[in-house]
Every structure is written in C-alpha cells, then in structure tokens.
C-alpha cells in the first residue's frame, strides 16, 4: 500500500524502513535483485528521488549493492552484517576458517546440551535439503542449503548472542564456502554432516564439537597458504 506523505525527512526514513523490512523478512533474500526504481515508486506511492535516496542509504549501510547496468542486489540482512561483509570480504581465508571452526564448535557443544525436539526436526530436514542440493550439482543451491543448515546448528545452541553474531557473519562465511566449493562437487569432496546431527541428538557434546570444528578446516589441498614460520 502507498505510504503516507509526511515531511521529506520522515518520508525518506519510512521508505528506508519499508525496504529494510523486505530484506530482513526474507522477502528479498540475499543475492536477489530488488524491484526496479519505477516499480518501487509505484509500490510505495512516493517520488523517484525519495526511492533513490532510500536505496542509496541502504547501499551505504551495506545491505544493498547498486550495480550499474544490472540492478540493485541484496548483499546483507542487517547493517551490522553489511559492515561485517565489507570488513572481512578480503580477509585471509584461513582466518575465516578458524573463526568459523571456533564458533561452530562452541555452538555444536551447546546444541548437544540444549537442543529441543523441534531443533532436531529442523536439523533433519535441513540436512536432507543439503544432501539433495549437493546431488543437484548446483553450487549456489548447495551453498545456500549448507549455510542454512549450519545456521540451524548454531540456533540450536539457544545462545542468542552467538546466534546473532553468526547471523551477521553468515554472508562472509557464504562467500568463503562459495569459493571453497567452486565447481568441484564430486563424491570425493562431499562432507557428510550426519555424524554432527547424530551427536547433537544423543547429547554427545565432545563429538558434536569435534565434528563441527573439523568441517571448515577440511578444505581443498592448497587452499590455504601458510605464512612464513608456520
């Protein structure tokens, strides 16, 4: 529905909030192209300049990426996620793997303690989706399914701070996984996550932590270049 028309600054904030809501709700998922400027003008019932200002503001905050000649794309789900993405996009892949290993290992240990039946049903469903995505041979589909599965493992820790931090980092981790998977989706490179889910199910904290920690470090040969002295 068209938005009301208060003074310009308040209207601009309204449009920013409306666009942000589309992103945070998942209506516009990460990687998707948002509607064109004329479409947004029609949907929101505001002037083109107001839409343009709102889109630029969200691009500045890291949620959107304006690509000339292609459109505007969602790159993060929150301002903090956008900051994280910009800050760590060029980081050493080994450091990203180490961070992911630490976070996921701690979360998996807690998940083995605190998981609910609802968590287990979610993990089972997402594990199945992950396997189907791998079998499809589509790398982008697999990256999305794998990231969603690992997010669910962290959420099963029922540690809100850890879950929020992981969610804000997830796009950096998704980029890392996308690069790691590449086009090599052969049986030899597949990593089964069934043992992780089983360990969480039976409350085996040590195995859950060990399994979760091992995945980010099990990269392609030569993926990491150790610095001198290692």
TrEMBL record:
Q: What Pfam families does the annotation carry? A: FCD, GntR
Q: SMART domains this protein is in?
A: FCD, HTH_GNTR
Q: What is this protein called?
A: FadR family transcriptional regulator
- The stretch of residues making up the signal peptide is none
Q: Does the keyword Disulfide bond apply?
A: no
Tell me where in this chain the HTH gntR-type domain is found.
9-77
* InterPro entries for this protein: GntR_C, TF_FadR/GntR_C, Tscrpt_reg_HTH_GntR, WH-like_DNA-bd_sf, WH_DNA-bd_sf
This entry's Gene Ontology molecular function terms read: DNA binding; DNA-binding transcription factor activity
**Keyword list, A-Z:** DNA-binding, Transcription, Transcription regulation
């Amino acid at each position: 529905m068209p938005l009301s028309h208060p003074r310009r600054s308040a209207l601009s904030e309204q449009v920013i909030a409306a666009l942000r809501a589309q992103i945070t709700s998942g209506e516009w998922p990460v990687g998707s192209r948002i509607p064109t400027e004329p479409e947004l003008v029609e949907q929101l019932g505001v002037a083109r300049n107001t839409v343009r200002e709102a889109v630029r503001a969200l691009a500045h905050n890291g949620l959107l990426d304006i690509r000339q000649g292609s459109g505007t794309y969602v790159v993060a789900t929150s301002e903090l996620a956008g900051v994280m993405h910009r800050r760590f996009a060029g980081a050493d892949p080994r450091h990203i793997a180490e961070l992911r290993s630490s976070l996921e290992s701690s979360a998996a240990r807690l998940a083995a303690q605190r998981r609910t039946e609802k968590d287990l049903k979610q993990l089972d469903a997402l594990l199945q989706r992950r396997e189907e995505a791998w079998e499809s041979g589509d790398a982008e589909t697999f990256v999305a399914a794998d990231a969603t599965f690992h997010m669910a493992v962290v959420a099963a820790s029922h540690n809100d701070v850890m879950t929020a931090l992981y969610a804000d980092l997830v796009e950096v981790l998704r980029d890392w996984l996308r690069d790691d998977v590449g086009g090599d989706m052969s049986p030899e490179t597949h990593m089964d996550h069934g043992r992780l889910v089983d360990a969480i199910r039976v409350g085996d904290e040590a195995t859950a932590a060990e399994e979760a920690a091992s995945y980010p470090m099990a990269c392609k040969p030569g993926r990491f270049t150790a610095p001198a002295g290692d």
